[in-house]
Fold this sequence. Notes:
Helix content is 41%, strand content 26%. It is α+β, with helices and mostly antiparallel strands. It has four domains: 3-125, 2-Layer Sandwich (Beta-Lactamase); 132-252, 2-Layer Sandwich (Beta-Lactamase), CATH 3.30.450; 255-341, Orthogonal Bundle (Helix Hairpins), CATH 1.10.287; 345-504, Heat Shock Protein 90 (2-Layer Sandwich). The strands form four sheets. Strands 2-1-5-4-3 form a five-stranded antiparallel beta sheet. Helix 10 packs antiparallel against helix 11 (312-338), helix 11 (312-338) packs across helix 12 (351-363) and helix 12 (351-363) crosses helix 13 (388-405). The longest helix is centred in the middle third of the chain and has 54 residues, at 254-307. It binds adenosine-5'-triphosphate and magnesium ion. Adenosine-5'-triphosphate (ATP) binds next to helix 13 and helix 14.
Amino acid sequence: MALDTLTDKIAMYSDREKEYLLKAVSAFRRRLIVVSQDFKILAANCSDEPGVDSTLVGKHCHKVFYDCDEPCEICAAKECIQSGRPTLRSKSDHPPDDEVVPCFYAYPIVSEGVIEAVVSMDFDLPTRGEIEEKLQRTNAFLRNLILSAVDGVIAADKNGKIIIFNDTAAEVFGYEVEEALSTLNITDIYPDNLEFQVMREMRSEAYGGKGKLRSYQVDVVSKGGERIPISLNAAIVYEGQKEIATIGFFHDMRESLRMKSDLEKTQLQLLQSEKMASLGKLAAGVAHQLNNPIGGITLFTKLVLEEYDLEEGVQEDLHRVLQDAERCRDTVKELLEFTRQTRQLMRPHDINQAISRTLFLLENQTLFHNIDIQRELASGLPQVTSDIQQLNHLFMNIILNAAQAMDGRGRLLVRTWFSEEDGSLLIEIADSGPGIPEDILPQIFDPFFTTKDEGEGTGLGLSLAYGIVENHGGKLRAENSSEGGSRFIIELPVAQKPTSGDNL
Length: 504
Ligand SMILES: Nc1ncnc2c1ncn2[C@@H]1O[C@H](COP(=O)(O)OP(=O)(O)OP(=O)(O)O)[C@@H](O)[C@H]1O
Ligand SMILES: [Mg+2]
């Protein structure tokens, strides 16, 4: 600031403002002096005692304070006069473990481009120790913040060495925090070298801008080798243009994916049962339509037999018509029973009867003509509280699969018995087909899993069957029998015990 401006500025102050500014200088409890270019004191604020400061004016500061004839070596005012810039100098003789470093600070008063005087003052600068302590406190706070974050947090330096690994990350990955920090590299947490892909995407603009990844779905691998799907928000930490680290915040997706898949399964089951229900309605309609003509055929055949004196051969033929009509009537009755349009009702039901009904409907179909159906149905079985329509679908799906696997030729065993030990009723449906290849065995209950050609199977049959058994609190498992072929075991819990002990 030029002198004129400075003088003008001072002239603008009121007496009251000037008084306060002077008081402010006086209230500064440390030494403050104004010296000329030749180090003579022009004004001083050094002593609390009135009048003492004025005695210093005109004297050399180095003489007054250090009893030296020359300006001191480390004088901040001297350097300020030489450089024309504010200068900070520490006093050299302070103990290293002091909390503060005593310093001199000097700044110039410039008038028309020339240094008119220099202000020199004492003050204490906090030592590094104190700064470090403050820094450490801040770091500890940030560290706690990261460590207790609900999401997993992992950071790695440019060589991939893990430098942050919080408690959630430890929980998800199965490592101890210390173990991860000392032994783990970021490349270890990705399967199939996926870290290259992650870094490539992060350096691109594609996922939230360069150096960032937003809501990125990727798999990681736990200490035990389990692949874990995560949603990752990550960033590259830059120093200037240089990449110095990466940090990622992630969320374990297993639970939400499980919930999503449960939801999809339920939707599928709903869809399937709606399909079954409308099929049922259709079948029931057809059955009702057939009832009247079948009644007519039976009635009129009986009338003809009674009214006319017919040849023996004709009579035999008419008896066959009558028998077939009766079979039709029974089929219609079973069909009506099978597709009974009831609300989901849990009632005690005879399982043997439900199986027989399903078999009755199926065995007349061409696919079953060359299948030897063996029934080993134990008598005196307790009833099972169940939704009969669901049970019909359950048996139908498993028996149909068996017949399809045998390509319509072979032996089908349907066995029921009561297990005293488990208090459950067991149903075995075994076939003499090729069995289920071991590698697909864990998947056969998955929705849409099928080995059949397109149009031949949707892959929903067994997933529906599984859901039905679960709804009834039971268990369903599949295995290959040692004699060949596959075997499905359904276990349904029962409330009461069997009435007689003649279980098979
Ligand atoms: N008794 C069996 N013997 C051999 N493989 C079987 C047997 N039952 C089921 N499978 C296998 O399990 C798969 C899944 O069966 P699922 O009933 O769920 O579907 P699908 O029969 O293929 O189709 P959909 O029943 O929906 O028409 C079948 O494709 C088949 O590979
Ligand atoms: Mg099927």
